[in-house]
């Protein structure tokens, strides 16, 4: 399936864009993680990388729909 | 009240929004830009903030729901910067009113600790000789 992924912070630099279209085989958050690692190995070096679906932190088992708002959340540093 | 702003944070407005007639204590935490990164032994010239704004607002609201479940919070307001800030400028203001002071201290600390741990806001440190996203790498 094809999905749009919003990126923030260092993830935008690693992926060279604020919104990146990804083609993934499968439809879970884990499938997206696998494709991200393959295409952008630098993401694996981060302290953490969460994936938000419709503005909520998601688990790897969660299934994605093409209409979901999907975002990569590298280590946060507010405050 | 939750605010993300690229303007200077109006501290008195945030305090005003957190006042309540039943409160005996109004605790305010103000986070400011520190001009030095001790571990790297580097001067910090500027911090560039960025947020996933709708999710940041939603996560702050969840933190406040947790805080309200634990302490008898009468009123509160939070503002966080999404601007480029210089040393000593204000990055975040948290104001919490409770009936008695102890709860206002505890709630304020809980809120800033949770905010730093889970709200999707990022800052990049700009040094004299480079730049780095804070906490991104080990």
Note down, in words, how this protein is organized.
The complex is a heterodimer of chains A (79) and B (138). Chain A is of the alpha+beta class and 79 residues long. Chain A is built from two helices and five strands; from the N terminus they run βαβαβββ. The radius of gyration of chain A is 12 Å and the shape is globular. The mean pLDDT of chain A is 97. With 138 residues, chain B is α+β, with helices and mostly antiparallel strands. Chain B has helices at 11-17, 53-70, 101-118; strands at 2-5, 25-32, 36-37, 42-51, 73-81, 84-85, 90-98, 121-127, 130-133. The model of chain B has no long low-confidence stretch (mean pLDDT 97). Classes of the chains: A alpha+beta (79), B alpha+beta (138). The interface between A and B is medium-sized, with 20 and 29 residues.
Structure described in brief:
The complex is a heterodimer of chains A (79) and B (138). Chain A has 79 residues and is an alpha+beta fold. Chain A is built from two helices and five strands.
Q: Helicity range of the residues of chain A?
A: 10-25%
Mean pLDDT across all residues of chain B, rounded?
97
Distance between the termini of chain B: 35 Å
Rg result of chain B: 16 Å
Number of helices of chain A: 2
Q: Secondary-structure element order of chain A, as H and E?
A: EHEHEEE
Approximate helicity band of chain B = 25-40%
User: Which consecutive residue ranges of chain A, at least 5 long each, have pLDDT under 50?
Assistant: none
Largest interface: A-B, 20 and 29 residues
Number of helices of chain B: 3
Whole-number mean pLDDT of chain A: 97
Spatial ordering of strands, largest sheet of chain A: 2-1-5-3-4
Beta-strand percentage range of chain A: 25-35%
Low-confidence stretches of chain B: none
**Overall body shape of chain B:** elongated
Structural class of chain A: alpha+beta
